[in-house]
Specification:
Elements lengths: L9 H4 L13 H4 L1 H16 L8 E5 L5 H8 L3 E6 L2 H13 L5 E4 L12 E7 L8 H11 E12 L3 H13 L19 H10 L2 E11 L5 H8 L7 H8 L1 E4 L5 E8 L19
Parallel strand pairs: 1-2, 1-4, 2-3, 4-5
Antiparallel strand pairs: 5-8, 6-7, 6-8
């Protein structure tokens, strides 16, 4: 277990406006939600099929409900878990307005308030690099998955490149940072090989890891980072301009999937991209 130096209480302070484009948290929605979900839909199609009616999904660290609503719309019965009461209230209100039936509960990844072997799918995005006990979160994930269940995830790599982007540019440099208090600690970021070892320890067999990051090659996006916020440029629009999604390199962030109880996933492809996890 590590002592947290990041400010996870930010999700209570600004969690009422997850869905508002001028909230820095909306950077996770503009293109990250569709980028992540497009990849997850591909994995679901390869491992489960395309009919999700009656299947149960658990959103660990559900925040404002971005991904919970996407999974619900394709047929899953979704339960969202988050330690922020403010974020849970926001997610409930937004789901009600959208007439989506999603169950939200206050809780942490280290102690999920759900029974054993309950879920067909568990997904965890932008969370693993925030938790106080990563091994316990993975253990809890394994506990609540049904045999053969699917685990979908993304997180920030611990590389020189991720330190420059996620820490220096997004967090420390005055002109480009999103929050004054720290929301990430580079030492808590996770290399793919480290996460793979934890998954295997908890009886989750890795299927694949791919890169996650901005796909835009336009150098003007660097100026957009300085302009984002307020009336100049919303964080939602910044996210869309950066065009987050699947990329080849895992140097900044990565996403992937694992299968519970060591069962080999169908059409399994190569796992760790050579070299990227050690940059």
């Amino acid at each position: 277990m590590v002592g947290l130096v990041i400010d996870n209480d930010v999700y209570n302070r600004v969690g009422e406006s997850w869905w508002e484009e001028d909230n820095p948290l909306n950077l996770l929605h503009g293109s990250l939600t569709p980028g992540r979900f497009a990849y997850f839909r591909t994995v679901l199609g390869q491992t489960i099929g395309r009919d999700y009616r009656g299947l149960r999904a658990l959103d660990v660290g559900s925040g404002g409900g971005f991904l919970a609503e996407e999974f619900t719309r394709i047929g899953f019965r979704v339960t969202g878990i988050d330690p922020s009461a403010v974020s849970i209230d926001t997610a409930r209100r937004h789901a009600a307005r959208a007439e989506l039936d999603i169950e939200y509960r206050i809780g942490s990844g280290e102690r999920l308030p759900v029974p054993d072997s309950t879920f067909d799918v568990v997904y965890c995005c932008d969370v693993l690099e925030h938790v106080s006990d990563l091994d316990q979160v993975i253990a809890e994930t394994s506990r609540v998955l049904k045999p053969g269940g699917l685990y979908l995830f993304d997180t920030i790599n611990r590389t020189f490149v991720s330190k420059l982007v996620a820490i220096k540019i997004m967090q420390e440099w005055r002109m480009t940072r999103m929050f004054d208090p720290p929301i990430h600690d580079w030492s808590m970021c996770i290399r793919p090989a480290e996460l793979t070892a934890l998954l295997e320890r908890r009886d989750l067999r890795l299927g694949e890891i791919v890169g996650l990051g901005p796909r835009s090659k336009n150098p003007l996006r660097l100026l957009d980072l300085a302009r984002a916020g307020g009336t100049r440029l919303s964080y939602g629009e910044l996210s869309r301009r950066l065009d987050f999604g699947q990329i080849r390199s895992t140097a900044i962030s990565y996403m992937g999937y694992a299968v519970a109880n060591g069962e080999s996933p169908p059409r399994q492809r190569d796992g760790l991209p050579d070299g990227h996890d050690q940059l």
